[in-house]
C-alpha cells in the first residue's frame, strides 16, 4: 500500500472473521505477529511500520506520522471501526491512535506496554542485566562497537533472550527470522519525541478515552509493570490481565492464556454473542 506522502508499506491479512489491526514493537523493528493465533473467527491485519522490515526505508519519523500510517492501513483494508492490538512500543502507538481517532477504534489491546512516563527505565536496566546473566558482557561488547550485519543480529538475539522466562534463545532466534536491518534513526527520533511528552498531559487525555481497553502484562517482564498503573487508573473502561511467570512476549510463552484473555475481551466488547 502507498501512504499519502508516497511511502510504500508492507501489509498482510491472515485468517477470517473479525479483523484485528496489529501494531508491532520497536520503534525501528518489523512485524513479528506471524505466530500470534487469535483463534477462529478473527483476522489479523499486520504491517511493517515505515522505515522497517519490508516497508519503504524512509521517514519522516514522527508520532503524528506513525499515527497517520495506522489510519492509512485501516483505510486500505476497508475497515470502518476496528480493534487495535499493540505490543511494546506498538502498544503506545495503538493508544495514541485511539486518542487521535476514538471513533475508528472499537477496542484497544495494550500488550507489554511501558506506560505513560519514563521513570521505569533505571529498574528495567537492572532487571535486564540480571536476566542476561553471563551473556551480558558479550551484549555490552557488541553494543559498544561498530557492528557488521551478523553482529547486529547477534546483538538483537542476545537482547531479546532477556524478554523470556524460559527458552529465551529459541524464541529470540524465531523473532530474528527473517532478519531485517534495525532502523536506529526511527528508534532515536520516536523515542526522543515520546520522552518529551509530559505524563500528566497523557493521563488527562486518557481520562476521556471511552474505547474499551485490555491491558495484558507478563509479570516477569523486565520492564516493570507498575509503570502502567497510571494508564490503568486514567482509563474509564479498562480490563487488566496479569500473566504470572511470563515475560515481554506473552503470545510466545503463554499462547493459550494470552489467546483466552484477548478473545474473551474482544467477544465481550466487539463481537457480543
From TrEMBL:
For this chain, the family text in UniProt reads: Belongs to the peptidase S33 family.
Gene Ontology BP, a term: proteolysis
Q: Which residues form the AB hydrolase-1 domain?
A: 19-254
Q: A Gene Ontology CC term for this entry? A: membrane
Its domain of life?
Bacteria
For this protein, the record's SUPFAM superfamilies field holds: alpha/beta-Hydrolases
Q: Which organism is it from?
A: Amycolatopsis azurea DSM 43854
Keyword set, alphabetical order: Hydrolase
What this protein is called in its record is Alpha/beta hydrolase
Q: Output one GO MF annotation.
A: aminopeptidase activity
Among the Pfam families in the record, one is: Abhydrolase_1
Q: Which InterPro entries match?
A: AB_hydrolase_1, AB_hydrolase_fold, AB_hydrolase_sf, Peptidase_S33
Matching Gene3D superfamilies: alpha/beta hydrolase
